[in-house]
Predict the structure.
Amino acid sequence: MSHLRFIIPLICAFTTGQSLPAQARKAEKPKQFIYVLRLVPRLYSDANWRKEDETVLERRFARFQEATKSGQLILAGRTKEPGDKTFGIAIFEAPDETAVRAFMQADPAVAGGLMMDGTASFAVALERKNP
């Protein structure tokens, strides 16, 4: 019985020591990034859009839907301004800028030459609750 007085505290100390790093990792919030997309000049005029361009945007939308479902994409949208004034944004959670840049460069609209991009570190300060 006396040996249990020594073993139980050792087990507790070992268990506590093992769970602290895991708890620290869980407490770490993912980093947030914003990327801004602008149309390439060819697409400033609605008359210049081709069927292939629309298909690329459909693929892009499906990809963003999946990223939203997985929790990677916080939000995405665009302005309603005409051609050269319009832009879109996407706010992501990711481990680092390299991961966001890889996602962005694989974006069908960027890879397909329809949009130009840029990323920046970002932090959502206030967010409404989803209904």
Summary: The beta strands are 31-39, 73-78, 88-94, 115-122.
